[in-house]
Design brief:
Layout lengths: L2 H27 L2 H7 L19 E4 L4 E4 L21 E4 L4 E4 L16 E4 L4 E4 L17 H4 L25 H16 L5 E4 L10 E4 L26 E7 L2 E7 L3 E3 L5 E3 L1
Antiparallel strand pairs: 1-2, 3-4, 5-6, 7-8, 9-10, 11-12
Length: 272
């Protein structure tokens, strides 16, 4: 083989080796791993680590792509703007996000937040809006007729004909005490409210004004199963250690517990 031929073969081999090296270098430099490293990781997510680069006292709220403080903000949050509300348990108004946010990390299968009576959760706006369903009219109930039983220790014949002094009737002006008041409102619910609703006293069980409101006690969170002021129902929002609750067919149901509590087989939250 001549000298020229040898140089030609050597040149071709060197050219091929250079091309292979350049191709490998280009592939390595433009690999996904290298691109993520050059752009801060996480496919270009500014938070890095799949968007979870939060502080130690924060958690990642993926529904709004932001970090939130565990247990809520250190100072009282601002109230929601007019026409908006937040669920009374586990949520608060975040001015920066312009919506209600949770004070603890949510599970993927968490039920919808529970708004106050007269409000409904909007999953697209992340807040409670006014319920559009019409509210039954609230007319004052008929006043009990005044007779000898009102002040003489005897029950008025128009209210059941109960004997004198039963259940402390004489001590309460002849009206059979608080027990009579409960039964009176209960019996009048059918006449005062639509079917399936109860006439619950407003303000106090023995309010003198006779004001009331019609409540669907089978599903109302604050009067679940009956009027709480009359001792006939339960306030589901007052259950200790709970985070998300509901009222189902007149019975309080606990969905999730607050941080530091766990759900028992009996459906209650106990401290861990």
């Amino acid at each position: 083989m001549s000298v020229i031929t040898r140089f030609s073969v050597l040149f071709v081999l060197l050219s091929l080796a250079g091309s292979i090296t350049a191709a490998n270098t280009s592939r390595a430099f433009n690999s996904p791993v290298d691109l993520e490293a050059r752009h801060g990781g996480g496919g270009g997510d500014k938070h890095g680590n799949n968007g979870r680069d939060c502080k130690g006292n924060e958690f990642w709220y993926k529904k709004k792509n932001c970090c939130l403080p565990h247990g809520g903000p250190p100072s009282p949050p601002p109230p929601p703007p007019s026409g908006s509300d937040c669920p009374p348990k586990g949520f608060y108004w975040n001015k920066g996000q312009g919506c209600c946010v949770p004070d603890h990390e949510e599970e993927d299968d968490s039920p919808p937040p529970q708004c106050r009576r007269g409000w409904r959760w909007s999953p697209h706006q992340f807040k409670c809006d006014h319920d559009d369903e019409p509210t039954p009219p609230s007319n004052p109930p008929p006043k009990p007729s005044k007779g000898p039983g009102d002040h003489g220790g005897k029950d008025n014949d128009n209210h059941g004909g109960r004997p004198e002094g039963q259940h402390g009737g004489g001590g309460h002006g002849g009206r059979d005490g608080h027990g009579y008041h409960k039964r009176s409102l209960k019996s009048r619910s059918a006449a005062l409210c639509p079917s399936g609703m109860e006439a619950c006293s407003i303000g106090a069980a023995n309010n003198a004004s006779g004001d009331y409101e019609c409540i669907e006690t089978a599903y109302d969170l604050r009067n679940c199963g009956g009027c709480v002021l009359l001792g006939e129902g339960q306030d589901c929002l007052a259950l200790p250690g709970t985070r998300s609750v509901g009222c189902e067919q007149g019975t309080c149901t606990v969905y999730t517990c607050a941080q530091g509590f766990k759900l028992t087989a009996q459906g209650t939250c106990i401290a861990i």
